[in-house]
């Protein structure tokens, strides 16, 4: 019985009664919120109660909370001991732990996959705003899957080899696809869809990484306090060691600052050095020669961006007759292995085709300054995005299951 702030408690059978302050019997509001590990338990559910609950849990190092069948993750922005330990992976895998965690989602997906293998695919969507922790979460999800799949026995080596290759691909994709933004020092500027393939017995046999929507305009334009893709800074940092000395010398003479598309950004450490990226390329199977070519293409892109164009008259323009523009044109052409005149023509003229297949005529028409500028920017972004796509498809070729026959559930060939 409750009266004012007092509560009378009667013990059944003994008929003993005692009187208490109400507050001492009810859990404090903090404790109540802490024990809510699924937001649907909140009453009432509204923006304030949800935020209050998440905030309270966060303050007590509880970074995961369920919302129905979804898990809400709050980025701790610091290393938390044992939050992703191997023991915890096994606990979720063996169902001895069920508190909200990304591992519980990975565990559900893996269990459903094993039960319905051959019939049902599973999908985990990691979404959130920039800097919220999607990339880190995806890495932990992948690690969970590789650990529990390894637990399946026989094919440990295959599984760890796939995991290793996916991990090796990370520094490459990060270098070419990540940049400093106002919200995140290592922001992925592309979408990623990772498909992990399992055999009928639940063994990992391969993976595919599909990349999409690369923010390629970043090559030529960056918002305030944001950087170009990390790889350009990495190349500039170690150019002297990795390219022919004439080019290194030239870049040194021009100075890194001479490259207009490489803004200096506060606290930018280019996220690892070029060596790490090149090592990852070697691990994934790209030869030294190809790596050198990739580096040359990157420097060529920087030179293309440095070419300045000036108007002669309304519909006619030319390359600025200064040292930087002229040298940049020559260097870009030489690094790409094309004639200087051809590159200049691509920037300043456009082809107009007329007639059918039989009587095809091609006219060359000069373009106005504005169009020449956008042709230059398009060329730089196009070359970069083709390079990125090519790298992504090369990586895919290395982690895809080779000759796997899904109908009999056996590997025909393993890539170890
Ligand atoms: N689980 C975590 N534990 C500790 N720190 C984390 C965790 N998740 C993210 N972080 C920190 O937050 C930073 C941003 O995370 P992340 O790059 O995963 O964000 P994102 O959502 O992928 O961002 P973007 O969309 O910009 O690529 C990381 O560099 C890391 O410092």
From TrEMBL:
Question: What InterPro entries would the database entry show?
Answer: Kinesin_motor_dom_sf (IPR036961), Myosin_head_motor_dom-like (IPR001609), P-loop_NTPase (IPR027417)
- Gene3D superfamilies, per this entry? Kinesin motor domain (3.40.850.10), Myosin VI head, motor domain, U50 subdomain (1.20.120.720)
| Domain called Myosin motor: residue spans | 34-416
Q: Where are the transmembrane segments?
A: none
Any one GO MF term held by the record is: microfilament motor activity
Q: Which domain of life is it from?
A: Eukaryota
Which residues are listed for ATP binding in this entry? 128-135
Name this polypeptide is given: Myosin motor domain-containing protein
Organism of origin: Dreissena polymorpha
